[in-house]
């Protein structure tokens, strides 16, 4: 087990460094140094059309997401006073369709007990907490307090768990006077509680990350918690501390089986280096989590149970209280890597959340796996479309699929290829500045890839574009398909119906306007290609 610095320590160190060199410089000066001419150019070039970003200041993990009364709520780790990590608040936004977001005032500020670190929120319909009043249903948030004084002094007990409640649908929050509800048991990294209602047992279940494992607690009232299980000490990757877990039951597609899915972000050792999110699947009896036998065997052979194989998808968790008639499990992640998050070339704000994704649990020849697909609501934004069938692609020669007809800074690309065997392909998105973003499939290695080495501004951090990112092909179907969503600074690729997802960010100096493709190891036919312009202003 490598003893790596935690993301937090890195973030704090960079924060102090960046803060000291910021003194005396305007945003415009800084923007120039960072390679864009002015904050307004930065807005035009880098502010995504439809991915959530904070209006100003720093953002990291998504927090406390719940659905209530027609609104999807999104909270997030936020430092409003600077574009780098700092004393954590919970920012707040709402949406009626998971695509367009309205900013709301900051929901929670740091206080005497510490910074407000990551956590979750649930609608307490039965008022088990007793916080409800005059028939108003309480929303209860559970989060980690990080006491910076203790943390800086190297004390182990800086992190504790706390709750707060809202009686006005998440707009204003009252912190519980009995906080913290879980004291620190002497574990330095002890954080990010994710609460869910366990319907079968009629209890609340909470999972949190504790150093290099997960701890599972149960409660009847959201205030008194009992430790039920610990999981993960000898399982999965431990190249960084574990953070931001999630834990929920799901029905296996096409069967009546229900399995529990555990997500766990890890601050190092992801497939392409840096931060990533691994997962585990098994059974939960209300107290203990046991890995599924087939899953366990597959994990022991090869660890390819990652939420995303791109460099940029971290700390992702799912929404609470999605209505049963909807029935989806909806996930959102922070799309940057913690190692360069403080360095990306935006100045007035920093960081982006992924497009919310629908999680599914499938059985892949008896091995349970999760898949991700973009939420269906994105299709409401489709404008003009081009559809082509049976496009012949010559080997080693570029076939132009679109040149100038689409603005790929807001677009969806979908394709399918019936039979590839050991052939491969490379798609290229490019602009008139000679910048290009490549993605595709290497048939000889059975691997997908994303290559942003020449995608635009890449020199702000040495780990941003030092190599091509690789993702294994997990599906064994003949048919290859992909669903790709593009915004100004991000690509999210869902290969094989989301069995392999890859998310990466990039910073071009002009939108990509051309799409071409080349095949390797023989000619191939793109059986179907669809390019859609997304309608956002
Ligand atoms: C993950 C994380 C969490 C923590 C939060 C602090 O990115 O380190 O574990 O709660 O960020 O902002």
Automatic annotation (TrEMBL):
<dbReference type="InterPro" id="IPR013189">
    <property type="entry name" value="Glyco_hydro_32_C"/>
</dbReference>
<comment type="similarity">
    <text>Belongs to the glycosyl hydrolase 32 family.</text>
</comment>
<feature type="domain" description="Glycosyl hydrolase family 32 C-terminal">
    <location>
        <begin position="382"/>
        <end position="532"/>
    </location>
</feature>
<keyword id="KW-0378">Hydrolase</keyword>
<dbReference type="InterPro" id="IPR018053">
    <property type="entry name" value="Glyco_hydro_32_AS"/>
</dbReference>
<dbReference type="InterPro" id="IPR013148">
    <property type="entry name" value="Glyco_hydro_32_N"/>
</dbReference>
<dbReference type="GO" id="GO:0005737">
    <property type="term" value="C:cytoplasm"/>
</dbReference>
<dbReference type="Pfam" id="PF00251">
    <property type="entry name" value="Glyco_hydro_32N"/>
</dbReference>
<dbReference type="GO" id="GO:0004575">
    <property type="term" value="F:sucrose alpha-glucosidase activity"/>
</dbReference>
<protein>
    <submittedName>
        <fullName>Glycoside hydrolase family 32 protein</fullName>
    </submittedName>
</protein>
<dbReference type="InterPro" id="IPR013320">
    <property type="entry name" value="ConA-like_dom_sf"/>
</dbReference>
<dbReference type="Pfam" id="PF08244">
    <property type="entry name" value="Glyco_hydro_32C"/>
</dbReference>
<dbReference type="GO" id="GO:0005987">
    <property type="term" value="P:sucrose catabolic process"/>
</dbReference>
<dbReference type="InterPro" id="IPR023296">
    <property type="entry name" value="Glyco_hydro_beta-prop_sf"/>
</dbReference>
<keyword id="KW-0326">Glycosidase</keyword>
<feature type="domain" description="Glycosyl hydrolase family 32 N-terminal">
    <location>
        <begin position="51"/>
        <end position="363"/>
    </location>
</feature>
<dbReference type="InterPro" id="IPR001362">
    <property type="entry name" value="Glyco_hydro_32"/>
</dbReference>
């Amino acid at each position: 087990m490598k003893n790596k610095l935690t993301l937090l320590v890195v973030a704090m160190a960079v924060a102090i460094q960046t803060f000291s060199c910021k003194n005396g410089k305007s945003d415009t000066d800084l923007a120039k140094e960072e390679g864009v001419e002015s904050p307004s150019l930065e807005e035009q070039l880098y502010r995504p059309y439809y991915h959530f970003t904070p209006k100003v200041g720093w953002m990291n993990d998504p927090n406390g997401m719940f659905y209530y009364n027609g609104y999807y709520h999104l909270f997030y780790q936020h430092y409003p006073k600077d574009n780098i990590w700092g004393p954590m608040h919970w920012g707040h936004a709402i949406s009626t369709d998971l695509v367009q977001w309205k900013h709301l005032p900051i929901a929670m500020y740091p206080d005497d007990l510490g910074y407000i670190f990551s956590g979750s929120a649930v609608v307490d319909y039965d008022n088990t907490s007793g916080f409800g009043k005059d028939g108003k249903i309480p929303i209860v948030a559970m989060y980690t307090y990080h006491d910076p004084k203790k943390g800086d002094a190297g004390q182990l007990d800086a992190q504790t768990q706390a709750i707060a409640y809202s009686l006005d649908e998440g707009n204003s929050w009252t912190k519980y006077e009995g906080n913290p509800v879980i004291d620190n048991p002497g574990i330095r990294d002890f954080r990010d509680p994710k609460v869910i209602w366990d319907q079968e047992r009629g209890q609340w279940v909470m999972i949190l990350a504790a150093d290099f494992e997960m701890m599972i607690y149960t409660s009847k009232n959201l205030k008194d918690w009992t430790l039920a299980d610990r999981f993960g000490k000898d399982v999965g990757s431990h190249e960084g501390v574990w953070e931001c877990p999630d834990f929920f039951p799901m029905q296996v597609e096409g069967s009546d089986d229900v399995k529990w899915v555990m997500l766990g972000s890890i601050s190092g050792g992801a497939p392409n280096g840096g931060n990533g999110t691994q997962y585990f699947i098994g059974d939960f009896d209300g107290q203990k989590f046991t890995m599924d036998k087939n899953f366990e065997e597959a994990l022991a052979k090869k660890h390819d149970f990652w939420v995303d194989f791109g460099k940029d998808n971290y700390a992702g968790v799912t929404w609470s209280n999605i209505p049963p008639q909807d029935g989806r499990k909806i996930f959102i992640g922070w799309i940057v890597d913690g190692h360069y998050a403080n360095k990306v070339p935006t100045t007035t704000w920093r960081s982006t959340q992924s497009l919310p994704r629908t999680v599914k649990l499938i059985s892949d020849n008896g091995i349970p796996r999760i898949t991700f697909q973009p939420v269906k609501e994105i299709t409401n934004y489709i404008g003009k479309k081009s559809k082509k069938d049976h496009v012949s692609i010559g080997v080693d020669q570029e076939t132009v699929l679109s040149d100038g007809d689409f603005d790929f800074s807001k677009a969806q690309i979908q394709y399918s290829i019936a039979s590839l065997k050991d052939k491969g392909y490379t798609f290229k998105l490019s602009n008139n500045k000679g910048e290009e973003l490549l993605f595709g499939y290497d048939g000889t290695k059975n691997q997908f890839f994303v290559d942003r080495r020449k995608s635009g501004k890449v020199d702000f951090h040495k780990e941003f574009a030092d190599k091509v990112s690789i993702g294994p092909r997990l599906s064994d179907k003949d048919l290859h398909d992909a669903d790709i969503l593009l915004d100004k600074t991000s690509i999210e690729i869902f290969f094989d119906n989301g069995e392999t997802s890859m998310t990466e960010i990039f910073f071009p100096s002009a939108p990509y306007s051309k799409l071409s493709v080349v095949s390797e190891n023989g000619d191939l036919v793109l059986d179907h290609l669809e390019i859609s312009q997304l309608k956002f202003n």
